[in-house]
Design a protein that fits this description.
The complex is a heterodimer. By secondary structure, chain A is an alpha+beta fold. Chain A is built from eight helices and five strands. Chain A has a five-stranded antiparallel sheet, with helices on both faces. Helix content of chain B is 75%, strand content 0%. Chain B contains four helices and no strands. In chain B, helix 1 runs parallel beside helix 4 and helix 2 crosses helix 4. The chains are: A alpha+beta, B mainly alpha. At the A-B interface, helix 6 and helix 7 of A face helix 2 and helix 4 of B.
Chain lengths: 243, 75
């Protein structure tokens, strides 16, 4: 968490992108994928949370949205597979696909006959572990066998910047959770500091001795140090002067 | 006992408790900070691995942060 404190300041100072900005940027990248892949009838990017639920989507048109919704409602499909495996998934003919028959047949009825999904991968900042998959980018065609290895490469190249932009959105959410945690931490910290000062005065002891009195009390009564501080500062408390 | 050997003895005990509790350093730092700790993540990490010495109050706070998080895990 300490390493992520800069995120809080980044958010406060407006360095992190807002959701509409991110959605527009990802929609533009999806549009670039759509226009550069022959046969495409639509493309989109989806941010997927740890439970496999889509949290943010951007797509070129409504047919992509419908095909996506179907996939997340069924809880299975090529985008979820690309995300979960961090691998590219290509379906050459939705009418004959065996991996996700329910989704494929429904997609085929919408007129989508082939597709590619690539994972949205964010490099690990520390460089110590594998890139993390945070979603998927996909493109659909209305003919079978519209895409090949080259299409996979193009889509993967576009997925790189899309992933980085979407990761910014995740950082923003994490920064919001962190600033709540930080507010709580600062509150408890100041209570403990005040109680320490009160005890130093009441017991005429050093700072460390006052802290040790509080720690001893916390351990004996099996309560958090912050609760000891709270009790110490209660005006009605008749304080036991022996530790 | 010299001041240093006091500190080292305390550090050994705290490091042992840290290993037993199997805590994440970042999570530990946040809790240590919330009870008044001043040292940074790198400093507490180095202290727990025996290559850095904290001031007495910081040692007491870190030890107690591990104690509280360890109890929270058991509960």
């Amino acid at each position: 968490m300490a390493g992520e404190l800069p995120e809080i300041f980044a958010r406060v100072t407006g360095l992190l992108l807002t959701e509409p900005v991110v959605d527009r940027a990802v929609a533009n990248i999806a549009q670039a994928a759509h226009q550069s892949l022959p046969g495409s009838v639509g493309a989109g990017g989806t941010l997927i949370d740890a439970h496999g639920r889509p949290t943010s989507t951007a797509s070129t048109n409504s047919i992509v949205k419908r095909a996506d919704r179907l996939q997340y409602d069924l809880g299975d499909g090529p985008c979820l597979a690309a995300w979960a495996s961090a691998q590219t998934v290509r379906v050459d003919d939705l009418r004959h696909d065996q991996h996700w028959p329910e989704w494929s047949r429904a997609g085929a009825r919408l007129g989508l006959l082939s597709c590619i999904s690539v994972p949205l991968l964010v490099p690990d900042v520390t460089g110590r572990s594998e890139p993390e998959a945070i979603g998927a980018m996909k493109v659909y065609a209305d003919v079978p066998h519209a895409f090949d290895e080259r299409s996979e490469q193009v889509l993967s190249l576009l997925a790189g910047p899309a992933a980085l932009i979407l990761a910014n959105l995740q950082a923003r959410e994490r920064a919001e959770q962190l600033s709540d945690a930080l507010k709580d931490a600062l509150h408890s910290r100041s209570l403990i500091d005040m109680a320490k000062g009160v005890l130093m005065e009441r017991l005429r002891v050093s700072e460390r001795a006052a802290l040790q009195v509080m720690i001893a009390r916390a351990r004996t009564q099996e309560i958090p140090l912050s609760a000891v501080a709270h009790e110490t500062l209660e005006p009605t408390t008749d304080l036991d002067r022996t530790p | 006992m010299s001041v240093d050997s006091d500190g080292e003895a305390q550090r050994d005990l705290t490091a042992k408790a840290f290993r037993q509790a199997d805590l994440d350093v970042d999570e530990l730092w946040m809790h240590y900070f919330s009870i008044g700790g001043d040292a940074g993540t790198m400093e507490i990490d180095a202290y727990l691995h025996g290559s850095y010495m904290l001031r007495p109050i910081q040692r007491d706070l870190l030890d107690h942060a591990i104690y509280e998080l360890g109890n929270a895990q058991k509960a």
